[in-house]
Amino acid sequence: MDRIGSVPFGDRTSKDGEARDEVESVEVKPTVVQVYFPGKGRTLAYYNERFDLHVGDIVFVDGKLEGLLGRVTVVSTHFKVKKEDYKQVIGLADTHVTGQFFQANGHLITFDPLVLPWKQFCSWVKPPEDDAGYYVSYDGEGFALDDLSGLEVSDAVYERGMEYHQEDRVVYLCLNGAQGRAIVKGTRPYEVEFRYRKGQIGDLLCDCPCGYTCKHAVAVLLQLRETLEIVEKEYAALWRASDYFSIVSKTMFYTFAVDADPKAVLSLGRRP
After folding, report:
1. Is residue 112 part of a domain?
2. More confident residue, 92 or 260
3. What is the pLDDT of residues 100-142, one digit of tens each?
4. Residue 9 lies in a domain
5. Other CB atoms within 10 A of residue 182 CB
6. 211 and 154 within one domain
7. Residue 60 sits in which domain range?
8. Are residues 147 and 206 in the same domain?
9. Same domain, yes or no, for 172 and 57?
10. Tally of domains within the chain
11. Three-class HEC string of 54-110
C-alpha cells in the first residue's frame, strides 16, 4: 500500500492550509447529547449549542472531564432542561480528510498542506484553547540535526526521547518551509515547535512544564531526522515541489479519519 486516502468532503480548508473553524455553514440547534469516555468507561450528558453533532462524533467537553476525548452516543433534540445544570461540549474533532498519503514507516505522509493541516489535527487531540497565556522566548542558538549533542541534554532524557520515538509517540509532525510543529503523545498531547533550514535546528520549544530541553523535543528531532531520510530517498521530487510535508500516526489516522468518519473510503494504489 503506497497510497491511501478518503473521500472528499466539502471545502474545509483556507488557502493557507489551515482548517476552518466551521466545516459547513449549517444552522446549529441546541441539543443534549450523551457522551461516552473510553478512558473513564463512563457516559455523561452535556448541553450543546455550538456544533451540529451526530452519533459517532468525537468531542471535548468542559467540567471534570475536560481534556478527555469522548464519543457522542445519543443526540436529543426534544428536551426541557436548565442550561446552567449542564456542562457543555466545547470542541469537535474535524475528522473529514481528503487527499493523498504515502507510506513512511509507522506514519503516513502527505505533501499537500490542505490535506491534514495543523489546526485540523489539533482538533483530534485537544480542546480549543486561548494562546494568550503563553510567554515565548527564543535564545537564537542552533545546532545541526545530524549532531544532537547540541541539545545538551542528560543521557536519561535522551534515552527517554529515543523510547518515545521508537514507540511512535510523535503522532503528528509538519514542516512548512522552515517552520516545524509536532504533537507528542504523553500524559497529555505536547506541542513542540522548531525551525529547520539547511540541516540546522533553531528555536526549539516544547509546551511541557520542564523548562529545559525535554524528551518530547528529543523524540521530535529523531522523528524529523528519520522522516527526512525517507523523504529524500523516496519522495524528493514531491517535497521540492511543495516545500511542505506532514506525517500522521497510522493508528491516529485510522481512528479519526477512517473509523470516526462513516463516509470515509480508502483508495489504495501505487506511486507512479
Report:
1. yes
2. 92
3. 999 999 999 999 999 999 999 999 999 887 555 555 555 656 8
4. no
5. 26
6. yes
7. 24-92
8. yes
9. no
10. 2
11. CCCCEEEECCCCCCCCEEEEEEECCCCCCHHHCCEEEEECCCCCCCCEEEECCEEEE
Q: Are residues 82 and 28 in the same domain?
A: yes
Q: 186, exposed or middle or buried, with CB in 10 Å at 0-12, 13-18, 19+?
A: middle
pTM: 0.86
Residue 14 covered by a domain: no
> Buried b / exposed e across 82-109, counting CB within 10 Å, b at 16+?
eeeebbebbbbbbbbbbbbbbbbebbbb
* Amino acid, single-letter form, for residue 189: P
Q: Which helix (H) or strand (E) holds 232?
A: helix 215-234
The grid coordinates of residue 218 equal 528529543
pLDDT value for 9: 32
Pick 137 or 147 by higher pLDDT. 147
User: Whose CA is closest to 204, among 138, 134, 148, 132?
Assistant: 138
CA-only gyration radius of the chain, Å: 20
**CA-based max dimension of the chain:** 63
Residue 136 CA to its chain's centroid (Å): 21
Residue 87 and residue 153 in one domain: no
Q: 12 in helix, strand or coil?
A: coil
Same-domain pairing of 186 and 64: no
CA-to-CA distance for 124 and 23, rounded, in angstroms?
Answer: 14
Cell matching residue 53: 453533532
